[in-house]
Amino acid sequence: MSIFTKLSILFCLSMTLMLYLSFKTDAITQEKIQYIHQEKYIQASKEFLNFLVNGDFAGLNQRTKELNYSKLSKAPTYDKTIYTDTISFGTIKIVKNDTNYFLYINYLDDAVWFYDNSQKKEHEQKELLNHLIVADIIILIIMFLIIIKILNPLKKLSNVIENFGAGDFSVRLKPTKQKDEISKLISTFNAMAQNLQNLITSRVQFLNDISHELRTPISKAKISLEMIEHSRYKEILKKSINHIDELTNELLEIEKLNADTTTLNLQTHSIDTILALALSKMQVEDEESIDVKIIELFQTKADINYLAIAIKNLIDNALKYKEKDKVEIVIRHNLLEIKNYAKPLTRELAYYTQTFTQENSSRNTNGYGLGLNLVKRILERHHFNLIYSYNQSKICFTIQF
Q1: At what angle do helices 304-321 and 271-280 cross, to 10 degrees?
Q2: For residue 201, which phi and psi values (nearest 5 degrees)?
Q3: Tell me, what's the pLDDT at 366?
Q4: Which residues sit opposite 300 in a β-bridge?
Q5: Residue 342's CB: how many other CB atoms inside 10 A?
Q6: CB atoms within 10 A of CB 267
Q7: pLDDT, tens digit, for every residue of 284-312?
Q8: Are strands 290-294 and 299-302 parallel, antiparallel or unpaired?
Q9: How far is CA 281 from the centre of its chain?
Q10: Is the entire prediction scored with pTM above 0.70?
């Protein structure tokens, strides 16, 4: 959940709570006001009734003024009767409309309406309270909008970082005019992004340079080697040059994958087509040393060239480290298994997928420690899994598609 969503939820909860408390407070206040006016009118009605019974209208008018009441010339409009008391030869009622409370006294032929003038001050206070509540809500809304505006660059920064992480190293965020921590964060990110882009550009240039500088002498060495007469030393030298060429290629491919400068050409291929390409990249002296078993063919979406390199490296390792018999390649549903008789690995698989790691000296040391690292990089880019297992004296590397 984003910070903006959390702020919106908190704002909505605050608004809801404020409105609820406002309505609840208003309802409680109304009940209290009604109770107060009812008690005041009941008390005053006793005095007013005595004046009516005695026919003392002058005294009634005087007492009305003393209590800050008014006698109404006509009956007011009202919605509800909140109190009724039937007396001898008359009736006492307290009624209300939307905003006011009134007292009605009827005795014989005399009927008088009274109004408590103190209600006017109460109305002013209530109106002021309502204005304060509205102002509070407006301030809350303004504060929310200001916070959203302040944090908006963070949302943009999050999107830019996401694009940067996806490989678009050219993205930058326009600095804000404010001189605050967010502005400093944006400036720091832009500087970091520029430095990383420069570093990646330098790495790409280095890859291009080293590719040219290394391949030229290797090619010359291969040509020169063909001119040498056949001998045991020629074969040793040929294998060494081929190993150097292979090491160079693997180093370049690893750096390209690490630098994310390679865009995979993802297409759907049958697994046997990919395996055939992997085998064609190898120089197997004895083709009978590899046994392929197809239990169930399947198709997968991948860059056929890179995936063939990964499979080739696994087969190469199996051939180098096998102690006897053939290397067995098994194709089954969404799995490619490469098995060979060998001693089990003494460490976790993660150790061997690092750059330049190999087993101890008791094992064959033909490997340069790059094969599994390149396999790991390629499979990670494809979101495939590499699984190691050991059963019945056989090492098994499984690619899970």
Answers
A1: 60
A2: -60, -40
A3: 47
A4: 269
A5: 21
A6: 10
A7: 666 788 999 999 999 999 999 889 989 99
A8: unpaired
A9: 43
A10: no
